[in-house]
Amino acid sequence: MQKKSSSKSHRATRGPSQRQLRAGELIRRALSDVVTRGTIQDPDLIERSFSVTEVRVSPDLRHATCFVAPLGKGDAAALAAALTRVRGYLRGQLSKEVTFKYMPDLTFEPDTSFDKAEQIDRLLHSPKVSQDLSPQDDEE
């Protein structure tokens, strides 16, 4: 008879659960709604356009990491720092929008996925890689 692997080690190899994904999407949408209302009084966030691109929630739903990206050119790290300053206010507003047993503690991080995608795109279009991807005439 084989032993079952522990759920913790099995969970570590898999991605987030359906519950985590659903909670993250609810928080992302509600956070976007709160931000678009324009009720945040922080001087670094007034008249600033940005997007909440993703929210990752811990398995116990007590912590949420919100990834933010400025629209247009801007400093994503400064944006994340400004949102961190008003996270108490945002958490309170979120509690009015979504119902959880415990409202997750919010952490804001700059979203670097767009930068990584741009870097990969530049690499794929570089002359060295292009010559490897183009068909050779002598192979036909």
Keywords:
single chain; 140 residues; alpha+beta; GMP Synthetase, Chain A, domain 3; flat; ribosomal small subunit binding; ribosome biogenesis; RbfA_dom_sf; cytoplasm; Ribosome-binding factor A
Q: Could you characterize the architecture of this molecule?
A:
The mean pLDDT is 82. The relative contact order is 0.14. By secondary structure, this protein is an alpha+beta fold. The protein has a single domain, classed as K homology (KH) domain (GMP Synthetase, Chain A, domain 3, 2-Layer Sandwich). Helices cover 48% and strands 16% of the residues. The radius of gyration is 21 Å and the shape is flat. Strands 1-2-3 form a three-stranded mixed sheet. The termini are far apart.
How many distinct folded domains?
A: 1
Helix content: 40-55%
Share of β-strand residues? 15-25%
Kindly name the structural category: alpha+beta
Order of helices and strands: HHEEHHEHH
Q: Mind describing the biggest β-sheet?
A: 3 strands, mixed
Task: Using the alpha-carbon principal axes, give the shape.
Answer: flat
Cα Rg: 21 Å
Give the overall average pLDDT. 82
**Architecture, according to CATH?**
2-Layer Sandwich
Strand runs, count: 3
The CATH class name reads Alpha Beta
Q: In angstroms, what separates the terminal alpha carbons?
A: 56 Å
State the CATH superfamily name: K homology (KH) domain
Q: Strands of the largest sheet, in order across it?
A: 1-2-3
Low-confidence stretches: none
Keywords: Cytoplasm, Ribosome biogenesis
Biased composition (Basic residues): 1-13
Family: Belongs to the RbfA family.
GO molecular function: ribosomal small subunit binding
